[in-house]
């Protein structure tokens, strides 16, 4: 089982994901430089947080137009796992692997805080080690995390139970309090909160671990709780 | 050939920046302002191309990169 | 009509000195280069004579002042590079870009040493915020600028301070500090040695932005300053991120002899500083410099302060290796010149020599130096007439305490630091909001503690004592987190040195910092001087900002200020005295900024700091917090708010109640500990003859203070927290 973290120029949570998986979860993990073409070796691809290509024009827009994202799309089409965290979520919506878009926070400010997140659906590779309705604390750090989508899309998200995480006390104006969603096939996850920042007791929060543990259990072919 | 591309949020999408600026304008005395929408103006020099080709290129640029058609709409003007 | 030399900010005697150096009249390019290099900002011409008062060496100091940043050893072959720098005038004109490029500049100073930046801090001063849209506009822009740059770089902004005082009304202060880690054998310096080696330029192209920023920083702000907007640079943090990664990768090879960022005075400064630290000479061609605009003149290229540029001195024959690494990061490296040994800085435009000067004459060793006259300002005698008996005692202490807690200087700064990504890179053990931030050093058990401090009201009332207090309070913050103070960087912000009363303030502060740093064994390893912080009628309060670093050998023992659980015993270390002069209480409640500043006893201070460090190391303490602005009552409230706990406090005193609660007597701390550990601590306190009082215990949710068996404060912590947290937010939204 191998995790791959894609590094774009301007990515800056790549290291955080790496250490969380390598040290706190004891997994095999590698960085993937943005000009790499072949990512067949990896079971789960992570698009980390940061400001890819400076996030000029729109967050994630430049990264979405890179060669490696073609490979990520193929990877996803094969049913393999992809997670986009924060800027990675923005890239996934820009590239069309997830519906909707992320626009500026309602208060127009960057927000670095701890968000209170409710688990909406545990029937996914990303949440199987959590309980439905469980409340966890996850750090957020973004200026554009305000999720928007049209009525049809929202209807589909609800019907298919693609909304995995919602905020309690919406920090950024996201519609339906959405903090994280998956695609219809449930193999692509996008979320604004940073689980990788909540994996180590020294830093005061280990609530994020369960999300990575869910992925590990899924990849090992294990049962959900 | 030079071009100007205007990218704006779709009417259905909330524009927090525009709302904030409307509030400020109202506050400093422009009380009749009813709506403000913020967008982007992108100026391009396309080099030596024909008008039709330029339009095709611009459409492709907008669809692929300059605008996110999930939330934004675009239009452009060509200048000699 | 002004003369040629006045146009570039020089005086007659300085122009004569240039004639001496050159043996002829300088041409326009040369004159402009002297103008920017001999500005106060680059040459320290009015301040350098006083730096002898600073201790700058010590067993842990690997690099003292004079380089891009100072470096201090933290053990295990690791060291910390740090520096603070001001960007006051640019931020007054264009707060977002001024602050953003201030952050960008200080980050480059750190990675130019070969260190990876791991934390940012800042220290901000504005005019009174209540009822001032201008101050709100400035604060909003400055905070957004700092956030915009630091967040994009992926360097956590972990600490800082913000104060509001009318003396900063026309001249806000924006000081940014950056801290990096480096292995001992990877330290690089700004050094152009090896005749024939190539001078390479990497990063953003040079434009006309920031023309003469260094000289702009060296004059007073006037109405016309708004017109100087062209002197404000625009930052590109994405470019800087690429530059950072490329430079660190380059410095891991042995291709690089020297490295220097292009900051104030741009290419001019970078060339002559590296030249004089190396073989002495350099020749460059301005036509080789990547330019953003057409038809740029050699003057514009040489003094532009465009951001995100670096100069490298590369071993001859290794240029292609450099190019390859740089191109991997989507940047370009171009050769713009070579190192020579003829002591001259020669500027070419193609084949034509357009400037030819002795390199050393331009930099601070060749610049003029002044020791200006100084005299004690008239206000000093007047403000010291205050006696605490001059004021009436408040009748309602609940109301008084709440009013102080909601003072912009005391209230929570969460509205600000919530905009800074303070957790990126997952090393932040103690986030903003406690006394000092604590950052884990990955791959070790160590952590470093960081803080910035300066009570400028004290420095106004008594610059020498005030600056001693600034250093000592920084050390207290470091100690409360469990770290041993190591070294400081100082951001010295003052009025015009050419006015004797302002220069007196500066001189007193420098002497005070020197004395405190010797006492506390925290050498000055880097710093910055910003003069001319005045508007037409008045100067800012003297503001010597102290940035301090300390080290914890075991970061898991890091301590924070908030009480942890009900039932903990609360002990006050030190003894409260009638020292209300210059206090926040006096300012907020009685609208007075006067009096004698509190007395500082280094012998007692050092004893208490040592004891707290040992108690934290033995894990006896649940919390530790130093008493500063707002005194005992405010410190207790702050300890309660963090975990929404209460306190039941019982004080016996001969002092008047307001003095007991709000005096800012030095060398005091509040610690909380489990009942079972009290005896051990008390024995140690008695052994060391440290005055202390067991003043009460942590409660569930009620905050109550009794003085001499009479209830004087009784509030719900929740209410205090709400008011304290909401005050600044409410002003800003």
Summarize the structure in words.
The complex is a heterotrimer of chains A (225), B (80) and C (733). With 225 residues, chain A is an alpha/beta fold. In chain A, the strands form 2 sheets. Chain A has a 9-stranded mixed beta sheet, with helices on both faces. Chain A has 6 helices and 11 strands. Chain A has a single domain (2-219), classed as Rossmann fold. Chain A has helices spanning 14-24, 61-64, 67-77, 87-94, 151-159, 209-219; strands spanning 2-7, 28-33, 44-47, 81-85, 101-103, 111-119, 135-142, 146-148, 163-168, 178-182, 188-191. In chain A, a hairpin with a 5-residue loop joins β10 and β11 (188-191). Chain A is globular, with a radius of gyration of 16 Å. The mean pLDDT of chain A is 96. Chain B has a 3-stranded antiparallel beta sheet with strand order 2-1-3, covered by helices on one side. Helices cover 35% and strands 29% of the residues of chain B. The radius of gyration of chain B is 16 Å and the shape is elongated. Chain B has helices at residues 16-27, 51-66, and strands spanning 2-9, 39-45, 72-79. The model of chain B has no long low-confidence stretch (mean pLDDT 90). Among the domains of chain C are: 1-37 and 189-369, Phosphoribosyl-aminoimidazole Synthetase, Chain A, domain 2, CATH 3.90.650.10; 387-411 and 559-733, Phosphoribosyl-aminoimidazole Synthetase, Chain A, domain 2, CATH 3.90.650. The longest helix of chain C is centred in the first third of the chain and has 21 residues, at 133-153. In chain C, α6 (95-111) packs parallel to α7, α7 (133-153) runs parallel beside α9 and α18 packs parallel to α21. Chain C has 733 residues and is α+β, with helices and mostly antiparallel strands. Chain C is 35% helix and 24% strand. The model of chain C has no long low-confidence stretch (mean pLDDT 94). Chain A binds chain C through residues 9-10, 12-13, 15-16, 19-20, 49-51, 53-56, 107, 109-113, 139, 141, 143, 194, 196-197, 200, 202-204, and chain C through 144, 147-148, 151-154, 236-239, 241-242, 329-330, 417-426, 428-429, 440, 442, 555-556, 733.
């Amino acid at each position: 089982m191998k995790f791959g973290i894609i590094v774009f120029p301007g990515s800056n949570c790549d290291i955080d994901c790496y250490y969380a998986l390598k040290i706190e979860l004891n997994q095999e993990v590698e960085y993937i430089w943005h000009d790499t073409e072949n990512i067949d070796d990896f079971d789960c691809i992570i698009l980390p947080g940061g400001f890819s290509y400076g996030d000029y024009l729109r967050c994630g827009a430049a990264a979405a137009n890179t060669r490696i994202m073609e490979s990520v799309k193929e990877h996803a089409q094969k049913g393999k796992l992809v997670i986009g965290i924060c800027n990675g979520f923005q890239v996934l919506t820009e590239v069309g692997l997830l519906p909707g878009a992320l626009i500026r926070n309602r208060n127009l400010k960057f927000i670095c805080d701890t968000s209170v997140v409710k688990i909406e659906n545990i029937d996914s590779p990303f949440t199987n080690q959590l309980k439905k309705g469980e409340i966890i604390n996850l750090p957020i750090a973004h200026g554009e995390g305000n999720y928007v989508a049209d009525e049809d899309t929202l209807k589909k998200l609800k019907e298919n139970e693609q909304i995995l995480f919602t905020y309690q006390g919406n920090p950024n104006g996201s519609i339906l309090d959405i903090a994280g969603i998956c695609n219809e096939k449930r193999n692509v996850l996008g979320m604004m909160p940073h689980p990788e920042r909540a994996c180590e007791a020294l830093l005061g929060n280990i609530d994020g671990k369960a999300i990575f543990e869910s992925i590990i259990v899924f990849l090992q072919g294990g049962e959900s709780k | 050939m030079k071009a100007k591309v205007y990218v704006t949020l779709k009417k259905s999408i909330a524009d927090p920046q525009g709302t904030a600026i409307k509030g400020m304008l109202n506050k400093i005395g422009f009380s009749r302002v009813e709506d403000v929408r913020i967008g982007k103006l992108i100026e391009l020099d396309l080099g030596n191309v024909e008008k039709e080709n330029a339009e095709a290129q611009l459409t492709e640029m907008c669809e692929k990169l300059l605008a996110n058609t999930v939330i934004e709409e675009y239009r452009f003007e060509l200048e000699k | 009509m002004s003369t040629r030399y006045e146009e570039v900010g020089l005086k007659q005697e300085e122009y004569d000195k240039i004639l001496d150096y050159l043996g002829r009249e300088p041409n326009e390019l040369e004159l402009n280069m002297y103008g920017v290099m001999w500005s106060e900002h680059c040459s320290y011409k009015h301040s350098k004579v006083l730096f002898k008062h600073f201790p700058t060496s010590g067993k842990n100091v690997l690099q003292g002042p004079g380089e891009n940043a100072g470096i201090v050893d933290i053990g295990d072959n690791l060291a910390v590079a740090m520096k603070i720098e001001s960007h006051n005038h640019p931020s007054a004109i264009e707060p977002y870009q001024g602050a953003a490029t201030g952050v960008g500049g200080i980050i480059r100073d750190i990675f130019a040493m070969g260190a990876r930046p791991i934390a940012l801090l800042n220290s901000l001063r504005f005019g009174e915020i209540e009822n001032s849209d201008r101050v709100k506009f400035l604060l909003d822009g400055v905070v957004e600028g700092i956030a915009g740059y630091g967040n994009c770089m992926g360097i956590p902004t972990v600490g800082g301070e913000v104060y509001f005082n009318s003396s900063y009304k026309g001249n806000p202060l924006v000081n940014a500090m950056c801290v990096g880690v480096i292995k001992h054998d990877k330290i690089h310096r700004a050094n152009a040695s090896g005749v024939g080696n190539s001078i390479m330029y990497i990063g953003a192209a040079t434009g006309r932005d920031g023309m003469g920023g260094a000289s702009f920083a060296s004059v007073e702000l006037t109405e016309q300053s708004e017109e100087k907007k062209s002197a404000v640079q625009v930052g590109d943090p994405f470019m800087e991120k690429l530059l950072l990664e490329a430079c660190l990768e380059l410095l891991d090879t042995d291709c690089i002899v020297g490295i220097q960022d292009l900051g104030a005075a741009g290419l001019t400064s970078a060339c002559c500083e590296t030249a004089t630290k190396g073989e002495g000479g350099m020749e460059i061609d301005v036509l080789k410099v990547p330019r953003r605009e057409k038809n740029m003149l050699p003057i514009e290229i040489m003094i532009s302060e465009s951001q995100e540029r670096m100069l490298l001195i590369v071993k001859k024959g290794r240029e292609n290796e450099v190019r390859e690494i740089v191109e991997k990061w989507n940047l370009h490296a171009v050769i713009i010149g070579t190192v020579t040994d003829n002591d001259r800085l020669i500027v070419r435009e193609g084949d034509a020599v357009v400037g030819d000067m002795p390199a050393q004459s331009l930099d601070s060793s060749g610049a003029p130096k002044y020791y200006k006259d100084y005299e004690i300002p008239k206000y000093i005698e007047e403000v010291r007439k205050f006696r605490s008996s001059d004021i009436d005692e408040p009748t309602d202490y609940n109301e008084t305490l709440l009013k102080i807690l909601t003072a912009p200087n005391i209230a929570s700064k969460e509205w600000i630091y919530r905009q800074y990504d303070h957790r990126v890179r997952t090393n932040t053990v103690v986030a903003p909001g406690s006394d000092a931030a604590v950052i884990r050093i990955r791959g070790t058990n160590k952590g470093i503690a960081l803080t910035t401090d300066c009570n400028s009201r004290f420095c106004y009332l008594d610059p020498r004592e005030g600056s001693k207090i600034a250093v000592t309070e920084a050390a207290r913050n470091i100690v409360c987190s469990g770290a041993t103070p190591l070294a400081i960087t100082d951001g010295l912000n003052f009025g015009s040195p050419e006015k004797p009363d302002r220069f007196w303030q500066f001189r007193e502060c420098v002497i005070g910092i020197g004395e405190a740093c010797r006492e506390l064994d925290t050498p000055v390893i880097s710093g910055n001087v910003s003069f001319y912080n005045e508007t037409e009628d008045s100067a800012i309060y003297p503001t010597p900002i102290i940035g301090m670093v300390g080290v914890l050998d075991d970061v898991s023992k890091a301590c924070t200020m908030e009480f942890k659980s009900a039932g903990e015993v609360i002990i006050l270390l030190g003894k409260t005295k009638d020292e209300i002069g210059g206090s926040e209480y006096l300012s907020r409640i009685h609208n007075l900024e006067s009096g004698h500043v509190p007395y500082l006893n280094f012998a007692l201070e050092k004893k208490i700091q040592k004891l707290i460090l040992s108690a934290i190391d033995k894990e006896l303490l649940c919390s530790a917090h130093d008493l500063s602005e707002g005194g005992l009552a405010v410190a207790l409230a702050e300890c309660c708010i963090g975990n929404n706990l209460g306190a039941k406090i019982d004080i016996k005193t001969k002092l008047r109640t307001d003095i007991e609660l709000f005096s800012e007597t030095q060398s005091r701390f509040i610690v909380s500990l489990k009942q079972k550990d009290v005896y051990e601590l008390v024995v140690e306190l008695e052994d060391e003859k440290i005055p202390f009082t067991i003043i009460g215990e942590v409660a569930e949710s009620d905050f109550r203070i009794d003085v001499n068996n009479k209830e004087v404060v009784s509030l719900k912590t929740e209410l205090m927290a709400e008011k304290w947290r909401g005050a600044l937010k409410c002003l800003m939204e």
